[in-house]
From TrEMBL:
Entry protein name: AAA family ATPase
Keywords: ATP-binding, Nucleotide-binding
Family matches, as Gene3D superfamilies: 3.40.50.2300, P-loop containing nucleotide triphosphate hydrolases
Location of the AAA domain: 156-320
Domain of life, source organism: Bacteria
UniProt KW ATP-binding keyword: yes
Source species: Maritalea mediterranea
């Protein structure tokens, strides 16, 4: 990536960075009580941990010592022990004799003692945690341990998806991206992931020769230089990876087809807007499970109500300990169309509606035909307030807590890496 784009993401301290994924590592935990084992096992449900291979075992340090006498050690060992002081250090000495030097160790104990913590850190333990261990705190500790030294912040990912075809998630995504670029004054990348029917090029009046299809069909030979070549800059702070929007080939992808592309974009763009198609398959599900924010766009009718209920339930299970998807109501007040009131819609399925976009056929039609955003057609229209509010919400700049896991333990002890 060019130096100016790299500088752009370095200067985004006002935007919460995206959640850093834990790399492909192996973790083995040796637990002495069921509650700790359950907390550890739940860690794999966190979106940051989906690349991790984790197994749990009964027993504490002695069980680990016996295991590693005949088996190789993983990248990380989590050890629960009721020992303390010299007894704990002596047991860890026995573990060190059968461990590789590169293996990191997190010790879980029931003694809340600063002096013990300092002693273990000096000894070479990566972290000491006091029971009961909360899953979000454990995941945060693991992520801190395996983030590369001096790693730059990564971009924030925001996915837009419709509850029903035609609900207008692409229009909402593009106008919100425009609002982000104007409010935050940082580069925004729009990835049009509806390869056969995407409209990002049309909506921004662009027809670039290359786009996201060149990246996803490149047989994994993609880096930041390739992504920069495929991007098109269509306005100040607005960049596009457009869809080919043709039916010359099939667009069947494996579950993680877009993962490396998104990660490359996150390293070089502070804000990445994913315009997802209205479909349900492995790669859409996987993408929704790993992004920082999900915006669900629906119209006020019965089919959308049913689909929102299904999608909300599914996304909550995919994104445990994450904020709920942001629900936007679109095309509210279509003349002569029977529709549910937004309050009835929200109360029926017990969800909060963030904002509603009124049906303005002339305004949206003019913008679409001209390849413009609503703010370009009419900068003073009140609909822009909804886009601006959504931009603040998804960028984490409106005072809403955006860090994962409200249950993170407030510690006075700084997490240290293995010395």
């Amino acid at each position: 990536m060019s130096d100016d784009i790299r500088q752009n993401i370095k200067g985004t301290s006002d935007i919460p960075s995206g959640a850093r994924l834990v790399p492909h590592i192996t973790i083995q935990a040796f637990c002495e009580n069921a509650m700790t084992a359950q907390s550890v096992e739940c860690a794999v449900n966190d979106r940051r941990m989906h690349k991790v291979a984790l197994t749990t075992h009964n027993g504490g340090i002695e069980a680990a010592v016996e295991t590693y006498k005949v088996n190789p050690t993983p990248n990380l060992i989590i050890i629960e022990s009721n020992l303390s002081g010299n007894d704990l250090v002596a047991a860890l000495d026995r573990l060190a004799e059968v461990c590789d030097a590169s293996t990191r160790v997190i010790v879980v104990g029931n003694v809340n003692d600063v002096e013990l913590y300092r002693r273990l850190i000096r000894y070479g333990v990566s972290e000491y945690m006091v029971t009961p261990v909360e899953t979000p705190a454990l995941v945060e500790t693991i992520a801190d341990l395996f983030a590369s030294d001096g790693a730059e912040p990564i971009g924030r990912t925001i996915a837009f998806v419709s509850a029903k075809g035609g609900a207008g998630s692409s229009t909402i995504a593009h106008n919100t991206a425009w609002a982000l670029s104007q409010q935050v004054r940082r580069d925004v990348l729009i990835m049009d992931m509806d390869l056969p029917f995407g409209t990002a090029g049309l909506n921004f009046n662009q027809e670039p020769p290359h786009g996201i299809a060149d990246a996803v069909f490149s047989n994994d030979d993609v880096d930041d230089v390739v992504i920069e070549r495929l991007m098109s800059k269509c306005a100040n702070h607005i960049n596009l990876l457009t869809a080919p929007a043709n039916l010359n080939r099939d667009y069947d992808f494996h579950e993680e087809a877009f993962e490396s592309i998104i990660e490359i974009c996150q390293k070089n763009m502070p804000l990445v807007v994913l315009d997802l198609p209205h479909t349900w398959n492995g790669w859409v599900r996987h993408t929704l499970s790993t992004v920082d924010e999900v915006v669900l766009v629906a119209e006020p009718d019965l089919a959308n109500l049913r689909n929102v209920k299904f999608m909300m339930d599914t996304l909550k299970s995919l994104r445990m300990s994450e904020a709920e998807p942001v629900l936007m109501m679109n095309k509210v007040g279509v003349p002569k169309r029977p529709e549910l009131s937004t309050s009835e819609f929200a109360n029926t399925i017990e969800v909060d509606i963030f904002a509603e976009i009124a049906f303005e056929a002339a305004l949206f039609g003019t913008a679409a035909n001209n390849g413009q955003m609503i703010a370009e057609v009419n900068s003073s229209h009140k609909i822009n307030d909804a886009f601006n509010a959504l931009a603040r919400r998804v960028s984490g700049r409106d005072g809403v807590a955006t860090q994962d896991a409200a249950g993170l333990l407030p510690g006075i002890l700084k997490k240290l890496k293995l010395g």
